[in-house]
UniProtKB/TrEMBL annotation:
Species name: Punica granatum
Keyword Zinc-finger carried by entry: no
A Pfam family that the UniProt record links to this protein: Sugar_tr
Record membrane topology: Multi-pass membrane protein
Name recorded for this polypeptide: Major facilitator superfamily (MFS) profile domain-containing protein
Length: 105
């Protein structure tokens, strides 16, 4: 179970760094129109911090249940967010805000 826990922690950290850890900050800066940037940015940051809070608060309870299973579950959720970002968040490199917004229509 020790090696499964280690693999789960590493996979979670990598997936979280590529997905939910960074995406709210990138979306705020590059995708949101100026008219809603403040409100939508606040919601994105709140969601990011609430997710981190939920992970922190559930960790001890889940570790009592299964150390390997806890980090494997966290890694699976984080991997899902990486897949979501890859499939649904548009590429912004070299595009104007208007071009990015038109890809949502």
């Amino acid at each position: 179970m020790g090696i499964l826990s280690l693999i789960g922690v590493v996979a979670f950290v990598i997936s979280f760094s590529l997905g939910m850890g960074a995406i709210p900050w990138l979306i705020m800066a590059e995708i949101l129109p100026v008219s809603i940037k403040g409100l939508a940015g606040s919601v994105a940051v709140l969601t990011n911090w609430l997710t981190s809070f939920a992970i922190t608060m559930s960790a001890n309870l889940l570790l009592d249940w299964s150390p390997g299973g806890t980090f494997t579950m966290y890694a699976a959720v984080a991997a899902f967010t990486v897949a979501f970002v890859t499939l649904w968040v548009p590429e912004t490199k070299g595009r104007t805000l208007e071009e990015i917004q038109s890809s949502f229509r």
